[in-house]
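User: For my dataset I need records formatted as: sequence, then structure tokens, nothing else. Please produce one.
Assistant:
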Amino acid sequence: MHENEIGTMVVRTAVELHKDLGPGLLESVYEILLAHRLRQKGLRVERQVSIPIEFDGYRFEEGFRADLIVEDKVIIELKSVEQVNSAHKKQVLTYLKLTGLKLGYLLNFGSARMKDDIFRIINGQLETHAGAQGTQG
């Protein structure tokens, strides 16, 4: 399955979940339930994946943790905040650069209309607003 196909499934599933639960819950609740729903759709999902820093031949395990990695191809960072800021977007780009993966999404479950707060981020490029379909950009 290609990254864009995975991304489309992730975005649609996240929007459905947001419609079912609404905004305002803790990020961890959305993470658990989104992972569950994606697995129900047949996708392989890992939660809280360690992302080490490798530099000058050294590996530092004190790196970061991606909320979700789907099919070993797409990084998903979840937020449950009133407003996403540039640091949140840079976080996803950092994860992409450290892993070498091409595609990531920043999904804000804290938004009243989630489809307005979905960002598709491509390794090496600026982020774009993904909208409800997850295919723009």
